[in-house]
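User
Take a look at the entry that follows and flag anything odd:
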Amino acid sequence: MVPGSSGGFNPLLPLPRATRLMAVCGLAAAVTGLSGCTDSFMDPSISGRWEYTPTVVPILDRIASIEDDDTSALEYSDPVAEDLLPQPASYRVTPGDALTLTLYDLIVTDRPDSYDVLVDQRGFIDVPQLGRFMVAGKTVEQIRLELEQAMTRFVSTPLVQILLLNARGETFSIVGAERPGQYPIPNSNLRLLQALTYGGRFDETVPEILVIRQVPLSDAATGMPMPETPATGTPTSPTPPTGVSPTPRTPEDLLNVIDELTGQGGASPQSPGLFATGLSAPRAAIGQPDSPPAGDGPDPVVDLVDQLPPAAPRTTTANGASNSGSWVFLNGRWVQVSQGQAQAGAAPSARPGTPPGPVQNILTQRIIRIPLQQLLAGNQSYNIVIRPGDVVRVPQNPFGFIYLSGQVARPGPIQLPASGGLTLLRALDAAGGPSAIAILDRVDLTRMIGNDRQATIRLDVKAISEQTQPDVFLKPNDRINVGTNFWALPLAIVRNGFRANYGFGILVDRNFGNDIFGPPPESVRRFE
């Protein structure tokens, strides 16, 4: 017993050496925690940037180290000026169209005979007394002239009337809206924003919509289809702009310019976003003669193959005239694309040295990407004209569940929001944040990369919180596992050993309770 003490703690006496050392260490740790460090050493589950300087970090939609690029084979293109211009043209009959033919004086004089015919899948129709006719790709006027020519065998002054009951070729399709399906095109100036209303409601939070357009391969070489005359539907040469010489430039002139500039030739311009990638090869490289192939059109489109293609063949008619149509190098051989005059079923000859026959309806594909928010805001540069055969696809935001486990406050499934855009940091916030013993640089993300395969990658959420690494968009069925380490639990125990009271108070030891408040009443013995 220290003299002068009453058996309790005396604050005036010096503290033991170990107690003083612990107090100094605690004070140093407190000063270190208040010295401006962004992260807490004692609590590694807390992380953030907390800087005054703003920063911009991208958010990853795909993790390249574990995911394959499933869109690598797709080529997207932005709208061009030609997509905003209406192109009225004579309708060309397609398979599935229904026609009503009225033939005058064919069976009985002064009596019309009407026949309802359906264009079959090969593009033919059967007309009584006249036979079988190929009508796919032709206008109504061309079909009428052909039928009247066939009637001249029986009638001196033939007369044919054709009524188009349904135009299946003048339609477009909508995929992903409330009412998906195929819709008619009422006029040649139908715009994309108006076409979207046909399908009803759709998700307006998606970033973009896609317009999948079928483009003839002959048009892919020039970039724009040739205009048609209203009467016959025959392609004509476009009118040159004002101030431009009307003298046409031949492929010979273009090749000469390329030879003078580079000495090797170069690639020809092409429409953006086309699957059929083409190039214009020099004459010397492909063995062409000094003069171009038959026809006045541009150089033939050549697929990118391992070896250079042979020279384009020349074909002439019986009277020695040049045969119409352009030549393209398709699937390893030259084929001729006719202008609607090919017979159905005529396929290119596979025998070597035999000129290939005419081929009809050779198409390629173009995918136009439209920013939806810009379109809905009224940006006219994205309100393109809908062409026959277009497919308007409205993508949907990903929906489903992600799963959180490990050191989070509320583990379990979390549903992806309807607007999409759930990132890794937002998912942790939705789960109540990391637990007290979580280590943020030990987070595993497991993602499905196939129907029966999954891949796991370790992510540093601490670096993501500090904005030194990009965040990641989550996908359905993703699993997030927040880990820990050996020192996380001891640090949590040390943190929980200290308490902080709100406000001020007085803590009285029981040894001093009787001196301040007196002995409790029940401890006082009464003597009588």
